[in-house]
Amino acid sequence: MNQRVSMDSSDPVLPGRGHASLADLLPSIAARCGVAGFGETVGLPPARSFVVLLIDGLGADLLDAHSAEAPYLASLRSTEHAPMTACVPSTTASSITSLGTGLPPGRHGVVGYTARIPGTRSLLNALTWDADVDPAQWQPYPTVFAQMQAGGATATVVSRSAFVGSGLTRVSQHGAHYIEADSAWERIGCAADSAEVPRSLTYTYSSRLDHAGHEHGSRSEQWRQALRRLDGEARSLREALPGDTALVVTGDHGMVDVPDTDRIDVDAVAELSDGVVLLGGEARFRHVYTSAGAANDVAAAWRAVLGDRAWVCTRDEAEAADWFGPVDDRVRPRLGDVVVAARGTNAAVAKRRFPVEAQMRGFHGSLTAAEMYVPLLVDVVGC
Asked: With contact defined as beta carbons under 8 Å apart, do 49 and 195 qualify?
């Protein structure tokens, strides 16, 4: 079982250290579906078909703290299926791509919410994408969905029509059969129909909880209301599924509420701009791109200002510590020359450069237990 660490631990939580990560989940399902070349490492039970429901923002700690709001989901917690880890950074675009490809960010290359487009001073927003960036070049590896289809199994994504053909969909889910379903009840019906096919994986997704957390905080009544509604939808999905289907529920990251007193405005501290040519990532995990040869000085300046409020590493230090898994040469320039991961309830906002982000209440992206651990909840229909 996972060794959980406290949110105030001096050590970051790293993916895949003695426990399963999100990147292990779909390969394990592919193995259960009899697709050659995959191994089962998560401990999933055998089943005729599998449905994966990813609830954006559902951290294991948050579910533990709000079990009364989610009686069905909480009932599925077990020592047999201990929480998994998200990837680094613990953010939606990176985690969903790790889930879909079975690879760490250092290989698939979606290294954060925003990251530098190499050779430019521009950022790629991985959620909205950029028309000038080819998703197939940014992330060239086949997804698990595509490999399952090629291996004689069936892989289906049931999700919103707005996501069809988006950059993030293409890098994380290409090769899957995509079914458009915009309401929760449409997604439940379509997922249940898809699960009728033996040796199949059906993936579906909800963003409601994450949106509530960003806007109102993960301890707010709005967040709890969203969790209650999602718990009911998950139960309804389970009831709609055919026999011998395994429903697997997980998240892509947890969330930390950041009080105003714990926000460091990078734009207001001159020392944090010296030698910096571009600021990326997000408030809980910054990619800091520096002028040539300035990485060590920039790292020293950020350490001096932030102290124990963040882990501050050069890119080489973070890579040596295996934050991103093995790093491909094409991916390395996308990583910050300096990376800054917030500790506790701190955040490095940039009110001038990222004004919308600075208005949020809940954040994620860093390596604390609250952000890194996500539940692995398994319910086999008929068992």
From this structure: yes
